């Protein structure tokens, strides 16, 4: 797995995790 692809995947997972965190806080 290339670093760029890995970084992109982590970035997407971070955004999803952040959205889920906001949903649980509400």
Describe the protein in words.
With 26 residues, this protein is mostly helical. It has one helix and no strands. The protein has one helix at 3-25.
Question: What general outline do the C-alpha atoms trace?
Answer: rod-shaped
Helix share bin: over 70%
Low-confidence stretches: none
**Strand tally, please?**
0
Could you give a short description of this structure?
Helices cover 88% and strands 0% of the residues. The protein is mostly helical.
List the helices and strands and how they pair.
Layout: H1 3-25
Summary tags:
mainly alpha, 26 residues
């Amino acid at each position: 797995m290339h670093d760029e692809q890995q970084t992109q995947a982590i970035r997407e997972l971070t955004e999803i995790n952040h959205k889920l965190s906001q949903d649980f806080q509400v």
